[in-house]
Amino acid sequence: MMDLKERDLEKELQFQASRSGGAGGQNVNKVATKVELKFDVQNSERLSDEEKALVQEKLASRINSDGFLQVVCQTERSQLRNKELCLERFYELLRQALTKQKKRKATKPSSASVRRRLENKKKQAEKKASRGYRGSF
């Protein structure tokens, strides 16, 4: 995460503030506290082509038709705090998108776990079988 912050991505970010809904009383009606962060993934000079492709693929649901990655924050009552939260979320999203997942190693279940599973299935079957009414008609 420090690697991303050291790249100085903040120069490529666009912030837009507007009035938000929710709690805040009269403050909500007067002050623009909602912050929207936009980041143009394709035209970024600070990300490599490989990183851009990863971000495009993994964060496709957050990228709009114009190619901007959007993060919106309106939970706090101050614009400054919402901006800080947007930045934290943005860096966290990028970090998650750029970390490579470990490949899963296929393993067999242990014989004890198989035995426990079958015993539990048998107990459950007996419990359900005992619920029925077996009278003679």
Describe this structure in words.
- Pfam families: RF-1.
- The chain has 137 residues and is α+β, with helices and mostly antiparallel strands.
- It is 43% helix and 14% strand.
- The chain has helices spanning 2-6, 26-30, 49-58, 79-98, 111-129, and strands at 13-18, 34-40, 68-73.
- Strands 1-2-3 form a three-stranded antiparallel sheet, with helices on one face.
- It is elongated and about 80 Å long.
Topology overview:
Elements: H1 2-6, E1 13-18, H2 26-30, E2 34-40, H3 49-58, E3 68-73, H4 79-98, H5 111-129
Antiparallel strand pairs: 1-2, 2-3
Family: Belongs to the prokaryotic/mitochondrial release factor family.
Protein name: Alternative ribosome rescue aminoacyl-tRNA hydrolase ArfB
Enzyme class: hydrolase
Write down the Rg.
26 Å
Proportion of residues in extended strands: 5-15%
What structural class results from the helix and strand content? Answer: alpha+beta
Low-confidence stretches: none
Number of strands: 3
Number of domains: 1
Q: Key terms for this structure?
A:
Double Stranded RNA Binding Domain, 3-stranded antiparallel beta sheet, hydrolase, 137 residues, alpha+beta, elongated, 3 strands
